[in-house]
Design goal:
The structure is a homodimer. The first copy, chain A, has helices at 14-21, 24-36, 51-64, 82-88, 92-98, and strands at 39-40, 67-72, 75-80. Chain A has a single domain, classed as Arc Repressor Mutant, subunit A (Orthogonal Bundle), CATH 1.10.10. In chain A, a hairpin with a 2-residue loop joins strand 2 and strand 3. In chain A, helix 1 (14-21) runs antiparallel to helix 3. Helix content of chain A is 49%, strand content 14%. Chain A has five helices and three strands; from the N terminus they run ααβαββαα. Chain A binds a DNA duplex through residues 1-2, 23, 25, 40-42, 49-60, 73-76.
DNA sequence: TCTACAGTTTGAAAAATATCGAACTTAAAA
DNA sequence: TTTTAAGTTCGATATTTTTCAAACTGTAGA
């Protein structure tokens, strides 16, 4: 099993978070999770992207500190890291929620 | 004289704003303006970038709706569009201010 | 008018990013 | 144990972005 690393709240940078959210696919995923709580890959409402591309976007969101996985069997459920984000970037999740999805 | 367009608050997108802030040079400029109010190009504390590159970054910030120019003689003074940003993305400027510069 | 200055635009090269298919991993089901 | 399903990793390609120098624009001062 792969050990996957999530940055501590103090290690996240606003620049990396913004870069992660600066792509329309990743913004969609983040907003989707902000609204729905938890989803696996097939639950993101992004159209006709290969699974390798989707996996790439998820990795960027994860490495920026925005999302965390919960692995259950063969499924990977993702959710926003609400606690860390509220601590490190208060107001950020509200910005995601305010946008229409 | 060139007519330059700023997007209305309602036309700004969070994705474009995040993409604009997702580059370290532009994040620096935005934070600089958030703290200092108004500066011209030579006032941004970015190291050894050609003026054409700096101009390019300013354009991206402007087109995303983040900054506005005030042209006075040969100088272009830039500032954050605080009213529009507070209306369209409440909490965003606080995020910029919260980061160390 | 001529020159210097602050900044933009253009065109090109280099670097980074997005995308895909194929191969791989892991876990559940047959 | 074999197969299937969910997702990641790898390698390659196409697109985008960053960057610079050179040319240009508009303003102020000599």
């Amino acid at each position: 099993m792969k050990k996957l690393t999530l940055p501590a709240a103090s290690d996240m940078t606003l620049t990396a978070v913004c870069a992660a959210l600066g792509d329309p696919v990743r913004m969609k995923i983040a907003q989707c999770l902000a609204h729905s709580g938890e989803k696996n890959c097939s639950g993101f409402e992004v159209d006709h992207l290969s699974k390798s591309t989707l996996s790439h976007h998820i990795k960027i969101l994860r490495e920026a500190g925005l999302i965390q996985p919960r692995i259950q069997g063969k499924e990977h459920f993702y959710s926003l890291r609400t606690e860390e984000l509220d601590q490190r970037f208060p107001g950020l999740i509200a910005l995601l929620l305010a946008e229409e999805v």
